[in-house]
Amino acid sequence: MGKVGWLLATVLSLGLSPPVALASDNTEAPLPDAPSALITRRFHGLAPANGLPGSPRPSPLPASDNSHGAILLRGLKRGIRDQREIYAAPFQRSAIPWDIGFVTLSGGLIAADRHASGALSRDHLEVSRRISDVGYYGTIAGAGALWLTSAATKDPHAREAGTLGLEALANTAVVYSIMQVSSGRQRPLEGDEKGHFWQNNSLDSSFPSGHAAFTWTTATVIAHEYPRPWVEWLAYGTATTVSVTRFTGLKHFPADVVVGGTFGYLIGRHIFHAHCKAGLSPACEGKSSFVSITNKRRIIATDVGRIGRVLW
Fold first, then answer.
1. For residue 188, how far is the Cα from the chain centroid?
2. Which of 160, 271, 261 is closest to 215 using CA atoms?
3. Which residue stretches of the chain have pLDDT < 70?
4. 210-225 and 229-248 are packed helices; what angle lies between their axes, rounded to 10 degrees?
5. What is the pLDDT of residue 286?
6. What is the pLDDT of residues 145-158, one digit of tens each?
7. Cα–Cα nearest to 231, from 243, 240, 219, 242
8. pTM of the predicted model, to two decimals?
9. Cα(300)–Cα(95) distance, rounded to whole angstroms?
10. Residues contacting residue 172 through CB under 8 Å, at least 6 positions apart
């Protein structure tokens, strides 16, 4: 997808930038010592008495390293840890039934792709493409706006929503890039229009859909941060519209948007549950998305139910 090529570098850099805002909020100015503490330290010779020469000076308290280099390093380590967990998730024993179902569905869609795209009308393709672009860029801009406005409003919830939204986008960008380059699938209007794989190994190939992946990632984080009916309708409804119009605009096959949207949703859900802070969002289950098999199934079932209510 040519329009997202420039976005990858931006998202990856912004995905590492939010920890700067988080770190700045965790630094507090040191409070002055109480008079009793000063008297005690002077009595034991630990503090200068009225600046007299030769009086020992207390050692400065160690300050947390909030330099840009240290913050960037922490953000990089966090991103690497997220990537490791994302790639390891499908190999967990509890995920095997989901893996089988997903591979079966994807294979069936790929087999039917050429017939589905061939049955579409070639009229009004540009209308579908414009609709998908509006929903795509609007959703991503929403996450960026939450992050930027939180700096002025000092709203911790908005800061977390923007931060995790950008982090989820950065993680999705890595997975998306690897799949795009390795699959190299032709788009519906390329070649003989049958969507052959390993023909266009670049970031402009068809599988998976970047519009669907990035929109579902952002929408999932926002819907989890603000689990209100109107927010879920807007977020998931926009993501679904973007996915459908990428198909009706003949920019992608059905398998491309389903796989892209699924990966986007799963990555967004993982980043939220892995890094959300309890007390900000009612949907936050704690620090790890791998809490337990029962909780994971309950979380996914709840999310699917919410998305189902939006779509039907």
1. 28
2. 261
3. 1-66, 286-312
4. 180
5. 54
6. 999 999 889 999 99
7. 219
8. 0.75
9. 12
10. 213, 214, 217, 263, 264, 267, 268
